[in-house]
Amino acid sequence: MKVLDKTISQLTIPTPFAVGDVHVYLLKGDTLSIIDAGVKTNEGWEALKTQLNELGYTPNDIEQIILTHHHPDHIGLIEAFPRAEVIAAHRNAKFYLTRDEAFFAQYEQFFKQFFADCGVPEKLIPSASELRGTLQFAGTGQVTDTLDEDDTLPGHGDWQVIETKGHAQSHLSFFRESDGAFIGGDHLLHHISPNPLLEPPIGNDVRPKPMLQYRANLIKCQPLGIQTVYPGHGEIFSNVNDLILVRLQKQEQRAGKVYEFLLEKAQTPFELCKQLFPKQYGNQLNLTMSETIGQLDYLEDEGLVTKTLQDGFYVYEAAK
Fold first, then answer.
1. Pairing between β-strand 145-146 and β-strand 152-153 as defined by DSSP bridges
2. Containing domain of residue 142, as a range?
3. Which of 83, 161, 170, 274 could form a disulfide with 70 if both were Cys (CB 3.0 to 4.6 A apart)?
């Protein structure tokens, strides 16, 4: 637990995931809010209670929950605050908080069809239970206050909402102009680059392109004047624009590797995925295919590759 200034404290919650601990933030203002809610485990709950107690609070004191995005390690304990009748989040978070069955049926059908179109063998396509696997660590609830770009946080008028889709289709970050503080969820992390994860379309038939969103929202952050990032994972850091340049350059280098593979021959996304992640693709298909598709989306957007449908599969080739 770290008291960062008179209005904000960082609480650190253990998770069962490879990413390790997750940070949540206690925000004082006209309302006592918690930003993100850790993961739903006994260890997470005990860590949250202990650190709140060290700050002189209990879960019953929290009046409002604000979410950066819908992933289980950020929404796990949203049911643990009896007085928090407000959950403020991006509109897309609601499907994951309510466990909307129609949405999840679409979610599962999207991945089944899309992975098949990308050349993934049927035996490797994740089952419905695999796709929902980590939801056991997520809480349920209702988004009561929808947050949009340029809104201010309810009860905290000095914090501006910045839409930062990419890692998730519900991702928001929060910026305080007076001192350049930035609560960034998983958008800006010092020690790792967040995965821009594939998600099904919401409200239309157009598949989101999370890598392009992630890049655009990194670039959008450059002129803000961010001084200090309070991240969802890892250390608090500064020198933000330097990090953004590194993230952009490394992504372009990874895309260059994909382009080199396609100069050799036209390939399906799954064939490329196996080359990029020969040891991981079998047991981390969602992550590895998200990365592969992200690089292909970038190359296609740059006009460097073309995509056709051949014998029922998407095939990419280097542009002539």
1. unpaired
2. 2-97+133-245
3. 170
Q: What is the DSSP letter of 278?
A: T
Residue type, 295: Q
Interval 7-37: pLDDT, tens: 999 999 999 988 899 999 999 999 999 999 9
Predicted structure pTM score = 0.94
Please report whether residue 84 resides in a domain. Answer: yes
Indicate the pairing of strand 8-13 with strand 145-146: unpaired
Q: In the listed set 193, 210, 245, which residue is the last one of a domain according to the structure? A: 245
Query: Residue 266: which CATH number?
Result: 1.10.10.10
Which two three-digit tokens encode residue 148? 């949009």
CB–CB of 163/40 below 8 Å? no
Q: Return the SS3 of 190.
A: coil
261 Cβ neighbours under 8 A, 6+ residues apart: 267, 272, 275
297 vs 300: CA distance, rounded Å? 5
